[in-house]
Amino acid sequence: MDTFPDLGALTDQELKDLIKDLTDEEIEISYRRRILHGKIDILRAELVNRLRRKDENGELVISGADVQQLTDILAGRVPQVTEVAETPEGLE
Question: Which of 38, 39, 48, 77 is the 20 to 30 Å CA partner of 30?
Fold first, then answer.
């Protein structure tokens, strides 16, 4: 992140230019955020549809293990992720 300029040292035009640059950047970031939120919404809708199909077929949608994992995550009891170089079964 860039450091904030010494505002007293900037001319009026430099201030206007800086405001325009930051406003343009904010517009780009907002657009990107909206695109990401749209993708997230699509993925969530797909997940909901899959869970509904599982429920209609009589399969358990959420297991006790899922609830426990969520509880651990919310309580901050998530094990640290370490990279392990393992060969998946069947690919050896």
Answer: 48
Q: Give residue limits of the domains in the chain.
A: 7-59
> Of all residues in the chain, what percent carry a pLDDT higher than 70?
82
Can you tell me the distance from the alpha carbon of 66 to that of 62, in angstroms, rounded to the nearest whole number?
Answer: 6
* Alpha carbon separation from 51 to 14, 60, 70 (Å, rounded): 55, 9, 17
Segment 25-47 mean pLDDT: 92
The residue count of the chain comes to 92
Q: Are 78 and 72 in contact (CB under 8 A)?
A: yes
The number of CA neighbours under 13 Å toward the Cβ of 58 is 0
pTM above 0.85, yes or no: no
Distance CA 35, CA 29 (A): 10
